[in-house]
Structure formats: C-alpha cells, structure tokens
Design a protein that fits this description.
mainly alpha, 2 domains, 6 helices, 2 strands, 56% helix
C-alpha cells in the first residue's frame, strides 16, 4: 500500500522511526557501559573523559542529521521525524537506563561467567575458578 507514496514521500517513516529508536538505544547504552560491576552512578566522572563526551555528542548529532536530512543516502523518510516521534524515540533510548538498573539488581551468579573476573571472584570465592592474591598473581582453585 505504501508503494504508491514511496516516490513522493521516500522510505517509510515507520522504518525511519524504528531505525532512530534503535540507534538512540545504542547511544544511551554507551553511557551505561561506562560503569561495570554494579556501580550505580553511571554519570560519575563522565567529564573526566573528554574524548568520550566529544564522540558521544558527534554520534548523537550525526544520528539527528541522518534521520532528518539523510533521506536519499541512508534510506530514511524525506521529511525525517516530527516532534512526537522524536520524543518517543528518545524515551526508547532512555529506557536503557531503566534496563541497566534492573540488571544491576540481579545477583551476579545468575549471569554466565565468560572469563576471569577479579571482582566476581572476590565477591563469590566459592564460585571462582581462579583466585588472585594481593600481588595480582593468579592461582588455580582446587
């Protein structure tokens, strides 16, 4: 049904919205990924890393430009998104903060261990496969 409008309107605004919401979720997840091991304040020390802040702003600006003006090149709708659509896309992006909090409330032992982790081993020595002593030397657990 949309095919008859595709020449005039460009690619579907629906797909443009899905693309933008997905990318915004990734961009906001970049902030969540700065802190691991259940550290709650994901914004702590964010301005101590100016390269991260600059790249984050460039990526966010690039996404806005691609969505609003990248119609022919990036196959987004020629008119971009309107205000309410941007608002919903940003809410989807910010939802990564909520998911991050929920995941931090889950106990560490629920997640599969994918390698050596000093913090996990210190918290759960009975589940550790390797132990680190104070000198950083790895000792195999018997």
């Amino acid at each position: 049904m949309y095919i008859k409008y595709a020449d005039k309107e460009g690619p579907s605004r629906h797909y443009t919205f899905i693309f933008t919401a997905f990318v915004l979720m990734q961009i906001f997840n970049m902030i969540c990924c700065r802190k691991i091991h259940d550290e709650w304040n994901i914004f702590d020390g964010i301005f101590k890393n100016p390269m991260f802040v600059i790249l984050w702003i460039i990526i966010m600006g690039g996404q806005i430009l691609i969505t609003q003006f990248g119609g022919l090149v990036f196959q987004t709708n020629f008119k971009g998104l309107d205000g309410p659509q941007w608002g919903i896309a940003y809410l989807a992006g910010v939802s990564t903060f909520v998911i991050n909090v929920i995941l931090k409330c889950l106990p560490d032992w629920l997640a599969p261990c994918m390698g050596d982790d000093r913090v996990f081993n210190a918290r759960y020595p009975h589940r550790a496969t390797k132990l680190h002593n104070d000198d950083g030397v790895v000792e195999e657990k018997e």
